[in-house]
Specification:
Blueprint (H helix, E strand, L loop, with lengths): L1 H19 L4 E11 L3 H10 L12 E14 L2 E17 L5 E22 L2 E21 L5 H9 L5 E24 L2 E14 L5 E2 L2 E2 L10 E11 L1
Antiparallel strand pairs: 1-2, 1-10, 2-3, 3-4, 4-5, 5-6, 6-7, 6-8, 7-10, 8-9
Length: 235
C-alpha cells in the first residue's frame, strides 16, 4: 500500500513538472478585443443628422487579429513581441439615397516583457507590460452617384460634392499593462487569456490626410480595456 502511494505521488510530481512548467518559448495566433467607446464620434454624426444618415452607430468593441510570442531569458522572465490590426465600420443611405461609410482602423506592434508564475497545477499566471506603436485612421466616404471621372471633376468644382473619399490617420503609442492566465493543454500547445488596459497616447491635433496636416482636432477615446485570447505553440 505504501509502495503504491509512493508511486502515485511520484507520478503526480513528474506530471506536474512536465505539464505545469512554463514554456521556454511560445508563439501563436492572438485575437484582440479593444473595448472602445465611440461616444464623441457618434455624437458628431448625430449632430449633423439626427438619423445618423441611416448608418446607425459605431459599436464599442474593435476586433483585432494578430500574433506574437516570447522566449524565456532569465528565471521566470520572458521577452517577446506582438502585433495586431483591425477595423470597424458603419454604412447606410439617407432619405435622399446618398450612401455613406465610416471606417475606423488601427495597427499596433511592439515588444513586451512578462513574468511567469505557476501557483497551482498546470495553471500559469503572467504579469507584464507591452509598448506598442502604430496608427489609427478614419476613412469617410460619401457617394451619391457612380464613382466616375465625371463625378470626380464635378465634386472638384462643387461646394457640395457628390463624391467624397477622405482618409485621415495619426500615430499612436500604447502602454499596455496586463495579466494573463495560461494553461498548457499539452507540452507543446495551450491557450492564454489576457486582460489589460491600453493607455493610448496621441496628438488629437496631429491628424494627416494625403500626407498633409489637417486643421482642427479629432478626439478618439482610445484609453480603454484590452482583452487578448491566444492559441499558442511552445516548448
Amino acid at each position: 500500500m505504501k509502495r503504491n502511494i509512493w508511486i502515485l505521488t511520484l507520478l503526480i510530481t513528474l506530471s506536474s513538472q512536465l505539464y505545469g512548467q512554463a514554456y521556454r518559448g511560445y508563439g501563436g495566433y492572438m485575437l484582440g478585443l479593444w473595448s472602445i467607446e465611440w461616444n464623441k464620434l457618434n455624437n458628431q454624426i448625430t449632430e449633423l443628422n439626427a438619423d445618423n444618415f441611416g448608418m446607425g452607430s459605431l459599436e464599442n468593441t474593435l476586433m483585432m487579429n494578430g500574433g506574437g510570442g516570447a522566449v524565456n531569458v532569465y528565471n521566470n522572465l520572458f521577452i517577446g513581441g506582438m502585433g495586431f490590426s483591425g477595423s470597424t465600420h458603419i454604412n447606410g443611405a439617407d432619405a435622399n439615397a446618398v450612401n455613406r461609410d465610416i471606417t475606423i482602423s488601427s495597427t499596433l506592434a511592439g515588444p513586451y516583457v512578462e513574468s511567469n508564475y505557476n501557483p497551482y497545477g498546470n495553471l500559469e499566471v503572467n504579469f507584464g507590460v507591452a509598448l506598442l506603436f502604430g496608427n489609427a485612421s478614419i476613412r469617410i466616404l460619401k457617394d451619391s452617384g457612380t464613382n466616375s471621372w465625371t463625378n470626380i471633376w464635378s465634386s472638384f468644382n462643387d461646394a457640395n460634392p457628390t463624391y467624397l473619399n477622405t482618409q485621415a490617420s495619426t500615430d499612436i503609442t500604447v502602454i499596455n499593462p496586463f495579466m494573463s492566465l495560461r494553461y498548457p493543454l499539452m507540452p507543446w500547445f495551450g491557450f492564454d487569456l489576457s486582460l489589460g488596459y491600453n493607455i493610448t497616447l496621441y496628438d488629437s491635433n496631429g491628424w494627416e490626410a494625403n500626407n498633409a496636416p489637417l486643421a482642427g482636432k479629432q478626439e478618439l477615446e482610445l484609453s480603454k480595456p484590452f482583452f487578448r485570447i491566444a492559441l499558442i505553440l511552445g516548448g
